[in-house]
Structures are given as structure tokens and as C-alpha cells.
Known about the structure:
The chain is mainly alpha-helical. It has helices at residues 6-12, 17-24, 28-35, 44-54, and strands at 2-4, 62-64.
Amino acid sequence: xxxxxxxxxxxxxxxxxxxxxxxxxxxxxxxxxxxxxxxxxxxxxxxxxxxxxxxxxxxxxxxxxxxxx
Length: 69
């Protein structure tokens, strides 16, 4: 299972979905799916933009949890 920590990163910085959409140029729906951890697939461009906004490596946004489904 892949865990997305976008909601935590946004909470730490007190950002709303609209703020992240504006800063990254990503569609609100993309951010909402990641925030709610319901996304099935994510564009590499979206990952790059989020890493840039939060100034973190990919591993701080996504985490693989072995054995969890």
C-alpha cells in the first residue's frame, strides 16, 4: 500500500487545497484525490510540482507500507 502524506504537509503549513492548486498549477481534483488518499495513479509532473512546493523529496510525500492492502 502507498500512503500519501500530502494532508500532513498541508496541515503543517496551513495550506488549503486551493492554495496548493494555485501554487503548483495542478487541478483541484488531483490534489483532493491525493489529500483524501483515493488517487489510483499520479502523474510524475504532479509529484515533481508537489515536491517543489514543499521542498521535500518524493519519500516525504509518499511512503510504501509493506503488507498493507
